[in-house]
């Protein structure tokens, strides 16, 4: 590609002419001396571009041509400013001329940096192989984001967003082309309106699971930009910042940084006054943050429980679900927080959401919250009196594994008294728990056996259990030492309660419990020795009882 296109003179000639004139200039000599060095560097870069781009693709040719045209315009302006600096008198005034000289310096700097980016990309020499049109388009846009005027970069951002919206594959291609670090650097220098478009691109990238780690790797630099948009951006910008923060807040280090930099306060403000969409996203970020115990104090300081209960009572379904999920995490292992949630109306909020959704998956957050609240002795009576036990029965048999497990754990928590255990048994939970013993997931088996070990303390519940044809066999099978990653204490405890019945004792022995128990005793499983001795005694007495 030649270094001329308007018929007057080449770029090389323009640069040579300026280099010859600069030593003769009388005004701003030190500034022009600096410009002279920049011109020499730019001349080298532009020559390299011209030599390389003759055999390159049309897209890379266009990038090179745009740069050369922009450089030509700057050189013409530089010649005009230089003419005004040839004498001691400055016809346009000192300040105006100085400003023009500084502008030339900045523009030459930008051209040199743009040229370096273009050369380093390998695009002009086709050093980097391109396997598809989409890959070529993505790489072209990544380069355009780094060179040219702000208007050009703005156009590139809009084109990139269009490309990424087409499908997730385009997101992965662009990430592979190195777009994320380029976007983060762009956030340092662009206007607020452009910054929000960049954040929109980042939020789109964050929606693709395989790309989240690249965003997390950018760390505090990206995080700080997103938090600034969260504080002072438009509704659109805050929306997109929240989406991106949902991915970034999964990291403990980032979660801690959000808590320390006032992020929780900004997120809570959005939960109170944001758009329905932004409320859901903001509550989602808070839900992630609440899973890190060391940040809980920040929630207390910001009066978060009141805001979350309010949103959980009146927001959209996604917003309510995230708010209740956040409350569930905050309540975990913290009795003070449990009581605060109840005082702020959390029970009413929980019940309202439970009764208003038909999707079983959405119930997981409220079942977990119920389970956590029931662990607090002061709160238990309130929970049971509000009619949650009957609500658990259908949930134990739903098609969502996580919900079934949470429901079984809630049953364990609610079975804290003779009265509550009896009520749970009469509600119909025991049959569903027996079915869960045969589930595929170890977590489901363990949650069910733990719940049964609590409920079978009640005599009437043991009678209900005995009516099942498979209950004893399902429990005994869980004693098998080959089944790992299962806490067998609960299974042993449940069987210990059942073998007080002669009929059940025979069923337990017939199912092969004695053989399993020998190995569990060797493994020092709690309660195994007592159960083994109990079964052994019954076998001896059975021999003496024969005629």
From TrEMBL:
InterPro entries: ARM-like, ARM-type_fold, Armadillo, DUF7032
Cited Gene3D superfamilies: Leucine-rich Repeat Variant
DUF7032 domain residues: 11-122
The protein, known as: DUF7032 domain-containing protein
Pfam families from the UniProt entry: DUF7032 (PF23005)
Lineage, highest ranks first: Eukaryota, Viridiplantae, Streptophyta, Embryophyta, Tracheophyta
Organism: Brassica oleracea var. oleracea
Keyword annotations from UniProtKB, A to Z: Repeat
Positions annotated as ARM repeat: 178-220
